[in-house]
Design brief:
By secondary structure, the chain is of the alpha+beta class. It contains 18 helices and 41 strands.
């Protein structure tokens, strides 16, 4: 037996037999290793592939495919290839080419699932938003338990303890499609590359991550940073580059009526994020620096041509920051550099930017702004340190005109500082730009947005060329703005109580208009200046202290067909169409019913305009009448004077006092009362022409009398009164020393021997007087000429021969009527141009007759001169007091005059000013006569002036002094330039003179010169 046993052992080598003995542990270890290898390499992949596919298909109800699963039990790796979940249309929903995981045994010592490497190659996803708003990815979301009412709250689950040393996602791709838009949107996001090192959910373990994403259009996003999952913390930096805005534009393209061109973004920002279970989320984004380059917006104009209406070379944001839960947003600077903007008004009146957004259905989410604010919690704090627009070029075009009008702005710079949505935050503002046609505008001020808009700004306008308005003026009148610049300095204010308050001083120099139809100067002035202007939109009023016109000019022409150059300036406007061309009727104006329902209407009170004074200096006018057989022309120059306070709400009319020269020695004076804002209500104007050379009037006499005029002087006293639209005129014409010329054939001339007519019309004083009453209605003017009263005079030649001045006049070729008298206006010692001519000729005659001498008696009229002196003295005192007022007194002229007049009245008169104020009241609203009464300031001032003038004392010495000044003025005129010996012109004692037609005549006498005895 023993021998047999040894033989059996010798048949199997002893060492191997001992190793493979099933009674040995090492046998079973080898078996385990063998089974572990076979199962790990072959069985596990087969089971995993089958079970994963079956599980996912049962979970999602969609086809799932998995090409291959590999496991390496010795390297502890799992690899899957060709995974995809398809939708119902057999299109890949999500998938990847390869997924690889490498598990480490350190998981046992770390007490956490530890993976040395996780990599995902070519992951793919297709995200589709269907037309009904649902997402294709919703199929991958497992249904939740709808009934949770009886479920008890679950205890917090400790997060999975995980350590991933290296995580890679490479060459990923996401296809995005939105079919809910009218034009479906599609884009690709690829490649998506993510690199993560030391990813951990263990407490206070952080890792380094890198993410790189690109789109098919070339946009790129890169992120580097670190992340810790327990607690959740992350910080890092993000950079973006590429055409992000065009991608966004393509998504919203169906909602926009413009095309976005270009637009490259470069941006970086840093962030920090922390999620604390007790404190909540804390996040901050800082060092935000973005720039958008070379972008533009284009639209189709009315001719369906693509037009670029906005070009943005660069929009730059610097030093931005956002903080939560502080709810703060802060931006260091936002700058828009060199933008170009074009805005136009189409022929139909619409603006180019009116329809940039397509019509969209109204939202019905039912969330009110108040509810949204309640959900939002405390408000955000937003601050922008600096907002700048640099070198903007803006072009505004009006295509509603036959010749489109364009206004171009260059170097438009806007600078806002410290922008904030905090209450009462003050925002410094600076604005400046230049106009292509000429001129610069700038503004400096402070803006407040909340709780209400407030603006205080100083505005400066420097030589803004008025020619820029030419296209719009040409559409209304056939005139051309030749020149003119507008300059102003203004203080502008916008408050909740008033949409606009303005205080300004302005100047318009060198403004001239040309009549395009006749190519001649029509209207203009050398300078228009307003020293103070105050406008209040809340009070609906405009106050002007003084308006000064320097060298105004106008040309008035009557054409051959009796039309005037002003009457045919207007451009014929097309009648409004009955409809707009699209079948819709033009809306009618607001009805009375609509107004009663609260529709916007005109302000309750009438607009109040007050002009303290209008000064005119160096005015001129050219008058011509080409409708006459012989064309006539006359020139008015040196027109000076003023118009007193003009008020649209006062019962006191404005007073006019203008005086000028007609041709060389003629005089024109315009005076009276007028209410410029309603001239037909009450007007009383007198116009006087004196010493007008009558040969210039030959065209008129040939038309009506068939004879020329060779010589003569004309005086006109014209007075027109308007009372509620009714016109009444008392016009007087005086002709002196008329000499008729040749006959001229003229249709309609009077069939009467003119020589006899002159004899009948010439009065005993050697003049012809014509009275021409005129009546009519200014709304339907039909004037009737009452008749011409003819008067005659006799023995004119005898009178002239008997008068020594007759001889003197003939020596110098001058008409001698009234050569023996010099006329003065009451209160004045100034020689009028006709009197200057008379004395110049008289001096020439005295030179030719060296043995003649003159005697002068200075004269005055106690009543007329006293009134004039009182008025002049008071006016001088008021002006002196006004000039002594502080330089910083910004009150209007009318208010300053009120202070001065009240002070003088208090000092000199025993008058109750309150009673005087009560006597000069007017309705605050002119349309409601019985409504609230306010002070009629112009009428009140006029009453004060009348009382103060009456209190002025004019003595006989004052009158004698004035008479002496008049005599000395005549003596100086006779002896000055003519170099006549003063001894030949004696000044005698003053005397009294009667008022003659508004003038005070001073008669002169001629006598032989008495030589002193020799020795």
């Amino acid at each position: 037996m023993n021998t047999g046993t040894r033989k059996d052992r010798s048949a199997f080598p002893w060492p191997l037999a001992a190793w493979w003995s099933y009674r040995r542990k090492r046998f079973w270890l080898l078996v385990f290793l063998l089974v572990y290898t076979v199962v790990g390499f072959f069985l596990v992949p087969w089971i995993a592939k089958r079970e994963v596919v079956a599980l996912l298909e049962s979970q999602f109800g969609l086809p799932v495919s998995l090409t291959r699963v590999r496991t390496n039990p010795w390297a502890l790796t799992v690899e899957a290839e060709g995974f995809a979940i398809n939708d119902s249309e057999e299109r890949v929903l999500v998938g990847f080419d390869r997924f690889f995981v490498n598990l480490q045994l350190a998981s046992l010592t770390n007490r956490a699932l530890t993976l040395r490497e996780v990599s995902l190659e070519r992951p793919y996803g297709r995200l589709v938003r269907r037309a009904d708003g649902t997402l294709n990815m919703s199929a991958l979301v497992p249904p939740g338990n709808a009934d949770t009412s009886e479920q008890e709250p679950e205890e917090p689950v400790e997060p999975l303890r995980l350590i991933v040393h290296e995580l890679y996602i490479s060459n990923g791709q996401i296809d995005v499609r939105d079919e809910s838009l009218s034009t479906p949107f599609e884009t690709e996001v690829r490649p998506v590359d993510i690199s993560v090192r030391e990813l951990s959910t263990l407490p206070d373990r952080t890792g380094e991550q890198q993410v790189s994403i690109a789109t098919a259009s070339g946009a790129r996003l890169a992120w580097t940073g670190d992340i810790s999952f327990y607690p959740l913390r992350s910080s890092g930096s993000v950079s973006l580059q590429g055409p992000y805005v065009p991608v966004m534009y393509r998504y919203f393209e169906s909602l926009l009526n413009f095309e976005f061109v270009g637009g490259e973004i470069e941006g970086t920002f840093d962030y920090q994020l922390r999620l604390d279970p007790e404190a909540g989320v804390a996040a901050s984004v800082h060092d935000v620096n973005w720039i958008l380059r070379e972008s533009a917006l284009e639209v189709l104009d009315s001719d369906q041509a693509r037009v670029r209406f906005v070009a943005l070379p660069a929009i730059e944001l610097q030093a931005g920051a956002i903080a939560w839960p502080e709810r703060t947003v802060k931006i260091g600077a936002l700058a828009i550099s060199d933008p170009q903007v074009r805005i136009w008004r189409n022929a139909d009146g619409s603006l180019s930017f009116e329809h940039l957004l397509a019509a969209e259905p109204e939202s019905s989410d039912g969330v009110s702004g108040e509810e949204a604010g309640e959900e939002a919690g405390q408000p955000w704090t937003v601050a922008l340190d600096s907002f700048r627009v640099e070198r903007l070029a803006l072009k505004l075009t009006d295509r509603t005109l036959d010749e489109p009008g364009t206004i171009g702005l260059q170097d438009f710079n806007l600078d806002l500082k410290n922008l904030s949505i905090e209450q009462d935050a003050q925002i410094p503002l600076s604005l400046s730009f230049s106009v292509d046609s000429g001129g610069d505008i700038s503004a400096e001020g402070v803006l407040t947005v909340l709780p209400a808009v407030l603006l205080q700004a100083d505005v400066s306008v420097n030589q803004l060329a008025l020619g820029l308005a030419q296209p719009w003026i040409a559409s209304m009148a056939n005139v051309n703005v030749d020149s003119g610049g507008f300059s102003a300095t203004a203080e502008l204010a916008v408050t909740p109580d008033s949409p606009l308050d303005l205080k300004a001083a302005l100047q318009i120099p060198g403004f001239y208009l040309t009549d395009l139809g006749r190519d001649e100067k029509l209207l203009g002035w050398e300078n228009l200046e307003i020293d103070q202007l105050a406008f209040s939109a809340a009070e609906n009023r405009l106050d002007i202290s003084t308006l000064a016109l320097q060298a105004p000019y106008t040309r008035f022409r009557i054409a051959e067909d009796q039309t005037t150059n002003f009457g045919d300036l207007a451009v014929q406007q097309p009648a409004p169409d009955a409809d707009r061309g699209d079948g819709s009727e033009v809306e009618a104006g607001p009805s009375a019913e609509g107004e009663s329902q609260g529709e916007a209407g005109p302000p309750a009170g009438a607009f109040a305009l007050t002009v303290g004074r209008v000064n005119v200096s160096g005015g001129a006018a050219d008058f011509s009448d080409l409708s006459l057989p012989l064309p006539f022309a006359a020139a008015i120059s040196e027109l000076n004077g003023q118009m007193s306070t003009i008020s649209s709400v006062s019962s006191e009319p404005a007073k006019i006092a203008l005086k000028g020269r007609v041709d060389e020695y003629g005089l024109v004076e315009i005076g009276g009362d007028i209410r410029p804002t309603d001239p037909t209500a009450s007007t009383d104007i007198s116009v006087q022409f004196r010493n007008v050379d009558m040969p210039r009037l030959s065209p008129y006499t040939t038309k009506f009398a068939g004879r020329k005029i060779d010589a003569g002087r004309l005086g006109l006293d014209l007075r027109y009164r308007l009372d509620n639209g009714r016109l009444a005129g008392d016009n007087g014409i005086r002709i002196e020393k008329l000499k008729l010329g040749d006959k001229v054939d003229s249709p309609g001339a009077v069939d009467l021997p003119l020589g006899l007519a002159v004899a009948l019309l010439t009065g005993p004083d050697g003049s012809i007087k014509l009275d021409m009453p005129i009546t009519g209605n200014v709304d339907d003017p039909q004037f009737s000429i009452g008749g011409v009263v003819m008067k005659t005079f006799a023995n004119l030649i005898a009178k002239l021969a008997a008068s020594p001045f007759n001889l003197l006049g003939r020596l110098v070729g001058m008409d001698t009527e009234k050569l023996d008298r010099v006329e003065f206006r009451p209160g004045s010692a100034e020689l009028a141009p006709p009197e200057q001519e008379k004395l110049t000729k008289l001096a020439e005659a005295l030179i030719m007759r060296p043995n003649l001498a003159m005697e002068l008696h200075g004269v005055s009229n106690s009543e007329a001169d006293s009134d004039a002196l009182r008025e002049a003295r008071l006016a001088a005192e008021v002006e002196a007091e006004l000039s002594q007022r502080p330089a910083d007194d910004a009150a209007m002229l009318t208010e300053r005059r009120k202070r001065v007049l009240e002070a003088l009245a208090t000092e000199r008169l025993s008058v109750d000013l309150s009673v005087l104020r009560e006597d000069n009241q007017r309705p605050e609203d002119p349309t409601q006569a019985d409504g609230k009464q306010v002070l009629d300031l112009p009428a009140y001032l006029a009453a004060l002036e009348q009382l103060l003038e009456a209190a002025e004392v004019v003595s006989q010495e004052d009158l004698d002094s004035l008479a002496g000044e008049r005599a000395l003025a005549v003596q100086k005129a006779l002896t000055g330039e003519a170099q006549i010996d003063p001894l030949r012109v004696k000044v005698l004692d003053p005397g009294e003179a009667k008022l003659d037609d508004g003038w005070i005549p001073m008669r002169m006498k001629v006598q032989a010169l008495q030589k002193q005895a020799e020795g």
